[in-house]
Amino acid sequence: MPNYTSNLRLIKPLENEFYDINEHNSNMDIIDKVVSNPNLLDNPWFTINQRGQSVYTTDGYCYDRWALDSASVGSGGSVGGITLLARGDGYCGIRQKLDSLSNFIGAEMTFSVLDSSHHVHSMTFTCPNNGDPRVDRTFTLTNGVTWRFSIQANNGIWDLQIKNNTKNSSVFIAMKLELGSVSTLENDSAPNYAEELLKCQRYYQEIDSSLFNYYFYDLNQIWFIAPLSEQMRTSPSAIAKGTPNIRTGGSVQSGFTTTFSGNSVVSCIAKAVKNSHAISNPALCNIHNAVIALSADL
User: Fold this and answer.
1) Nearest to 95, CA basis, from 160, 2, 139, 152
2) Alpha carbon distance 153, 138 (integer Å)
3) 172-210 burial code (b ≥16 CB/10 A, e <16)
4) Parallel, antiparallel, or unpaired: how do β-strands 267-273 and 92-98 relate?
5) pLDDT digits (tens, 9 = 90+) for 72-104
6) Architecture of domain 204-295
7) pLDDT at position 78, please?
8) Do 265 and 176 touch, CB atoms closer than 8 A?
9) β-pair type (135-140, 120-126)
């Protein structure tokens, strides 16, 4: 009787046994089902949604690292992923911009999608250089809807898109961009949430205003600083969701205008301005009532 490997249960013939090609092929089939290349996309299973909306209906970023183009997007339902639908009579699309493909220019790559029937649709292409013609491929999902995949490089940014020109909705469970001529998406499962979140927070993250700590003041201003969860790609822009207020010992201090600027890749700066604020101990002040959205998206 043969032995078996401990992890994949591959057949290991004993020294006194004959070589069996069927056992060899069985081992190869098992290995083929578990081998997978790294996915070069961020948030490929659409599990990270820091902006928090259940449905997005305007152009721009939606699920982390993905941006809409004349489309609406929401949950893919029980199968997971997203449902993508045109908003008007023209094409609809979703895109991800990448700044990490410079080492792969000229290499053979494969893009693939997993549809709601758990079928993989893939296409192979050569990674373009800056200024090269746009790569275009078409693929038809199990539901009969045809989509177009494209990728083009300009100024060190690769713009990857899928789009169609019908109003038919489609569910995409996952997408994958990888090196080589064969898709390994079928062997994948959703990535670790915490690890994927940190990758996405390089481009976008939100912090609660209560995380800001006092660090400096003068007669007209009080400064606060908050550390970021993950170092960002570049110094981010900041927008407050809600109306931030300044409190001391639980009491709201009226008349302050709070802005968020001068940010770095590792921290966010808040400045509360009120002429002659007359607060004797600003170190006791806190910021409340807002979430700060920080964006370093491409």
Assistant:
1) 160
2) 19
3) bbbbbbbeeeebbbeebeebeeeebbebbbbbbbbbebe
4) unpaired
5) 899 988 889 999 988 776 678 999 999 999 999
6) Sandwich (2.60)
7) 87
8) no
9) unpaired
From the CB of residue 21, how many other CB atoms can be counted at a distance below 10 Å?
7
Q: Which pLDDT score, from 0 to 100, does residue 203 have? A: 98
- Do 54 and 74 meet the contact criterion of CB atoms below 8 Å apart? yes
Amino acid symbol at 167: K
pLDDT digits (tens, 9 = 90+) for 106-144: 999 999 999 999 999 999 999 999 999 999 999 999 989
**pLDDT class for 276, splitting at 50, 70, 90?**
very high
Would the pTM of this model clear 0.70, i.e. be above it? yes
Helix (H, G, I), strand (E, B) or coil at 201: coil
Token pair listed for 271: 């400045």
CA angle 147, 135, 82 (to 5 degrees): 35
> Among candidates 48, 44, 40, which has minimal Cα distance to 64?
48
Residues 6 or more apart whose Cβ sits within 8 Å of residue 169: 83, 84, 85
Residue 170: CA count within 13 A, CB half-sphere? 29
All CATH 2.60.40 domain ranges of the chain, comma separated, are 204-295
Pinpoint the residues of the chain covered by CATH 2.60.120.
55-193
Which positions ≥6 away from 88 have C-beta within 8 Å? 70
DSSP assignment string, 67-127:
EEESEEEEE-GGG-SEEEEESSSS-EEEEEEES--GGGTT-EEEEEEEETTS-EEEEEEEP
From CA 113, how far away is CA 121, in angstroms rounded? 5
CATH number of the domain at 55-193, please? 2.60.120
Percent helix, strand, coil in the chain, to 5, is: 10, 40, 45
